[in-house]
Amino acid sequence: MDSMVRITELVPESPTDLGLPHGSWWPHQREAVAATLSGFEQGRKVLVSAPTGSGKTLIGSAVARVQGGTSMFLAHTIYLQRQQLRTLLQAATATGRANHTCLLPDPFGQELTAAEAPCPCHFAREGGCGYYNQLFACADADEVVLNYAYAVRVCKAHGMKVTTIDPTTNQEVSLLLPNPFKGRDLLVCDEAHLLERALIDADTIDVHRRTFDQLQVPLPGTTELGAWKEWAKLWVTPVANRVTGLLKSFRAVEHPHRDDIREARRLQSAYSVLDEVLQINPQDVPYYVGRTPSGYQVRPLWAWETAHNLLFKYGRDVMIMSATVGDPHLTTRLLGIEPDDWTLVEVPSTFPLENRPVFYWPVMKMKHGNTDEEKMQQVHALAHLASKFPTSAGVVHCCSYTLGRFLYDNAHRYPDLQSRLVIHTATDRESVFADFEHNPSNRVLITPAATTGVDWGFVGWQMIPKVPFPDLSDDIVRLRYEYQTEEGEPIGKRVYLQEAALAIVQASGRCVRTPTDKGVTIITDGAFWTLFQFTSPLSFPSWFRDAVTWYKPGG
Ligand code: SF4
Fold this sequence. Notes:
Blueprint: H1 3-10, H2 29-41, E1 45-49, H3 56-67, E2 71-75, H4 78-85, E3 92-93, H5 130-140, E4 143-147, H6 148-154, E5 159-166, E6 171-178, E7 184-189, H7 195-202, E8 205-208, H8 209-214, H9 225-252, H10 258-279, E9 287-292, E10 295-300, H11 307-310, E11 315-322, H12 328-334, E12 342-346, E13 358-364, H13 372-388, E14 393-397, H14 401-410, H15 415-418, E15 421-423, H16 429-438, E16 444-447, E17 459-464, H17 475-482, H18 491-508, E18 520-525, H19 527-534, H20 542-545, E19 548-550
The structure holds iron/sulfur cluster (SF4).
Iron/sulfur cluster binds near residues 102, 104, 118, 120 and 124.
């Protein structure tokens, strides 16, 4: 029997047969499940490119259920983690220590989170504090749902340090139980276009000046990585000795003084910074060292050397899903996946093309140094588009707060438009979004912060006046952009273009979340044509390319 036919027969006629809360498959889901299982059978990681509304979580859950082993699902944020639990009803979930309260009675005169607590205490057990309870629940569960930031930290822990009573002596003793997240049969990474960033964030070392000042350990005062490695070499042993000495003294007293506990926490966090800096090998991947308001940041520019150790090795099979996978050859390189170690499963869109058209209408080319007079053309275009949709809510993805403010302030020439406009700042974003969702009417929201993560099926039209290229005035963006391989391949430029392309594709999906939603996207920046020409065609999924009408062919 053909292997694909055999595998498809393993996937039941209905998701309910797998215990999933959906009566029937949506189009292409069953085939996507079978194709993923087939990829695993060939020993490959599977990238699933599935457009908005194709039911990615159900596809991933079904793969896990057909396999029948243990699985770990990763979402980008706690909000999306909760969304996955609506499909994975039996899954256990866990979040980072900062989300849990410590049960110890007010040791420092204030309520502590588990992140600040001197763990483990006698509540580090099943039925103990909230943080440990969730770990025990995960250890017992076949399916667990975590977020990226927590997963990459917790997976690498050797085990789970708990407290138990020794039945022979009736005394409390510490035990190291196995890490509940290691050795899962399946690892499912959702929102995979954000995965590289999540891995880099997890590998970033934040150096807090205050901690080191209090320990009287002077920082290097330079952004040269060699000096930081020398500094770590010099201080790691003295700090380790201080930690050991303090912990030894704790054992001699029943209730250590709170100042000593604080000192121990400072020393432990300083030690882990020193140890991490010491382990950096700049031959593997370039690092950036930069100043931050609280001290310094030591950050890898790429995740290709670390992705396996931080994440992929915790699943026997690995599934990487997104509506915007990008060019899979480039995306897998960024994640350190070898060329013959992956396969792509593409799920077609079931949303009718006529419900989600994308128009390229280049009113002008946006670039650094545009005059106000030039940018006014975008204001005129906005007024024109708003007049074409007098009763629909609209969104302007303005790319930056500066451009957003320019559009808003100059709309006074068009009173009809101005009365419909809504704008927000970085600080009132959440409340403005909530108000817009609650009462969209025919209002037009100007925002640089809604290309991902919002479901606005009520929006009838969207304008993209500027291609959202990453900001080259940011040191890290610039260093990545300039990066070339030893062979001179400008991989940094390719990534830069792909990031802009994916942001456009993501933005276009905001207003069409179900097959019956209707929403038009109009790109008015002439730079989009350049982006389209110089970016790998694979960076734009076919369901997006098919929707584009070139109002002015050739840009
Ligand atoms: S184990 Fe103890 S110290 Fe740690 S968070 Fe729980 S209650 Fe607090």
